[in-house]
Amino acid sequence: MAAQDDEIPEEYLAGYAPILADAAATGRRLTRDELDSRRALGERAAEAGHGLRTLITAHLTATRVNWPGDATSADSVLAVATQALDAFAEGHERALRLAVRQEEATRREFIDDLLYGRSDLGLLAERAERFGLRLSYEHAVAVAQGETGYEDGDAVPRDVERALIGRFGDRSILLTTKDGCLICIAPGDQSDVLAYFAKQAYAATDGGRVALGRPQPGPGGVVQSYEEALNALDLAARLELDAPVLHAADLLVYPVLTRDRQAMADLVLNTLGPLQNARGGAQPLIDTLTAYFDSGCVAAEAARRLSLSVRAFTYRLSRIRSLTGADPADPMQRYTLQTAVIGARLLDWPVQQF
């Protein structure tokens, strides 16, 4: 706990009066040792929690009380006092900067351990309380990704944090950055916090993308929710999803589809492999199927999305049916085709061959 500023011990003024008297009498400046002693006292005062303003007031009072009667001039006394105060303030500020850096390092180490799950969970829970998190409860994580990377202290994280604190105050919310992304950790029962974070982050990142992991319990819940949010961002990039806010709970089908990578690869090759025999390769016809399924199997809308005439689009569907033997208009065959198209996008086929 910080010391009370109105209880400044005399020890932080130790040696000041003799230095003032001797230097002022001769008109000399302070020696290196005298300056170093002032800096050291300033550091000790900062470490003890004393505020600089009150310490300066104490020095000015001591200057007035101990004003040398044999000083050559007022200017020499003030010059010595200025030197002493400047050295003292330098030491005080240096100690504060060091304390801030140490606090930042401690916070960064905790966040890294929390998001990577590489620390003892019991110890991690104890450390979390220092940062306002109670890991015995459920927590959810939101991750915002912009065009550029962000670090703690940048304008964008500061703006988002200011908005969150202004709206919710201190609600056990932890806002940080990791690998260039903005990250918000909040209690799992406070979905309004993450929803507001998503809104603010989307605006602050000029249309970036935000993913929300599901609430997860226990000390390991944060890293699970964080990984879900990251996976949602990765899926959105590979599937070219255009939603600005993604909920991991809405994307659970995709991890299921890719859990057996070999089975998915077999489905893609067996179902869509024949499309490689088409003029121009498989990609244009995969894009055709993607537009068809994304538009609710409405040919006119899909044609518009691809800037094709309806006649040209229906010709492509006919070509797909001829090459694969599967009809996109048939419900059962459409499901197989759509699953294969999703698999192709997830596996980056046919760019990546397997």
TrEMBL record:
Cited Pfam families: GGDEF_2, HTH_30
The name this protein goes by in its record? Regulator
State the organism's lineage: Bacteria, Bacillati, Actinomycetota, Actinomycetes, Kitasatosporales
Q: Can you give the residue ranges of the CdaR GGDEF-like domain?
A: 117-235
Tell me the PANTHER family matching this sequence. CARBOHYDRATE DIACID REGULATOR (PTHR33744), DNA-BINDING TRANSCRIPTIONAL ACTIVATOR ADER (PTHR33744:SF1)
Q: Which InterPro entries match?
A: CdaR-like_regulators, CdaR_GGDEF, PucR_C-HTH_dom, PucR_C-HTH_sf
Q: Where is the PucR C-terminal helix-turn-helix domain?
A: 285-341
| Superkingdom in the source lineage | Bacteria
According to its UniProt record, which protein family does this protein belong to?
Answer: Belongs to the CdaR family.
